[in-house]
Model the fold of this input.
Amino acid sequence: MPAPNRVTPWGTIEAIPQRGMFLGNRGCLHTRPRELARRWQVRRWITCALEYKGWAAPQWEPRRWTPLFFWDEAVALAAGHRPCALCRHADHVRWLDHWEAAHGDRPRVDPMDRVLHADRLDGTAPRRHTAAWRDLPAGAFAVLDDAAVLVLDDRLVPWSAAGYGPSRRRPARGDATVLTPRATIGVLRAGYVPVIHPSGGR
Done:
């Protein structure tokens, strides 16, 4: 049975059969194996490599951070995470380059994580925003017909617990409800290219 540590583009943590390409960290979320007590503990929500220099994250250890899993980096960004500065150092530097291009400064991680935290949560509820479909950058997630869809150039690729489905054309008009936080949308617009699962067809 899948463990309750898979993260969706909505930012929820669910027990679905979809381990994916990346690991994540929001602090210690579990009180005992396979039992979550909270959705997050710290502001530093990062996206990590599944393995780093032969080291793999321990699973469900007492008082240790809870490993989370993402289908791909676009899902992790939509959920409010960013690249880890240690195990994904090159991607972290690339992220900072595009953050600076988008927002005009190159902050240390604590100020950046405060911005991301304010963007992803409205109290305890996920924060959403709207944008024109035509203005959304590739790699963003939005909502169409109550489903999460990945934006890829002129296409939308629906996400589900089974992975990505057949693509459809992006609407040429109207506004979308956007799942990816505002600050991250800016980084994507500035040219940051997230890793997309091969089933997304990028």
Observations:
- DSSP finds four helices and 19 strands in the chain.
- The radius of gyration is 16 Å.
- The first helix runs from residue 73 to 78.
- The chain has a mean pLDDT of 94.
